[in-house]
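Field notebook, page 393. I keep forgetting to write these up properly, so this time I am using the form the group agreed on. The chain and the ligand, glycine, are recorded exactly as supplied. Prediction of the bound pose follows.
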Amino acid sequence: MLFENMPAITGEEVENALRFGAEQVVRNLTDFTYKFQKAYSEGGFYRPIDNNYWTTGFWTGEIWLSYEYMKGKDNPLAEQLRKAGEIQIDSFLERIEQKIEVDHHDMGFLYSPSCVAGYKLIGSTKGREAAIRAADQLITRYHPVGEFIQAWGPMDAPENYRLIIDCLLNLPLLYWASEETGDTKYRDIAEKHIHTAIANVIREDYSTWHTFFFDMKTGAPDHGATCQGYRDGSAWARGQAWGIYGCALAYKYTKRKEYIDIFKHVSQYYLEHLPKDMVPFWDLEFTDGDDQPRDSSSASIAACGMLEMIKSMGEEDAAVYRRYAKQMMKSLYDTYAVKDADLSNGLVLHSTYSNHSPYNTCNHYGVDECNSWGDYFYMEALTRLHKDWKLYW
Ligand code: GLY
């Protein structure tokens, strides 16, 4: 086993971290009830934005996780959180009705932690309606030729004819929509996409491509390329983490045994390329001694994936991945988590959204800052360690 001497987070630390997280979320409601957090902080502080970016669902998800925590403690602040969550659901319903910035595949990131969560937790009918509309929107991006959901951009352009590994987290919305409506079309598309994605984005050594192109005429797999990784052939840390969580969810919904095996290999590659403190640099190409920023959000995402996968594993395997998850969370809690609200209005420092390199195609922003999904998945992982959590995905 790797990292044998790394300590694991204790129950008391989980409790402390969740309490601080929920209190921080409550403090933020003043600025972020009718507004949303920007995708990343600047100098440690998020600015408010309208509900018009792919990341806004994470903030609402933090509100729901905090609501669950406070409610479990019989804390009256739970009521304030519930009301804020409902106000945000109104915004998500309006967004999908008016089709504001929804021409991309991130309907799951937007609508699962916000509206599906609100429906599951408090029976929000508006949340249900919004999330079903979002699932309808998501399946408009499905290419029957090629059998995948296109990530970004107009549907008829060859430069857009690709999927990205992150999309595995968008698919639970489709499974949920089939369950809710009784219409299997959502699930059928999700299943096709999962198969195409896993068959192509995972390389022979179990590192991962961030994005993968297909031939527009035949739908045949064409080539992998990066957008946010360091270079095409490297493993973008968050892509690998999306792969870990994505495989766990793929197994949850398809029950295909081979996905457990792939999960183990993808996790192994990730773990073997971590620095000593188990929090990756932004690309797994880099390790201790490299002067590069970290992506702490990847650690929380990987921990959530491991904590999900162990539900379907025998105790021996489960113990291994539970331990890795707890070790990663300990490292985040000790060294990366915000502990003083005067220094940041976020939860976890040292994340990287988009780091431009000479070999990639992304813009440069949100480097070595908090980011919204980093905060959300940190709270999700803590919640998973705190109780038997009914997932929003
Ligand atoms: N899904 C985009 C990202 O992880 O940055």
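OBSERVATIONS:
- The chain has a mean pLDDT of 98.
- The longest strand covers residues 221-225.
FOLLOW-UP: compare against the apo run.
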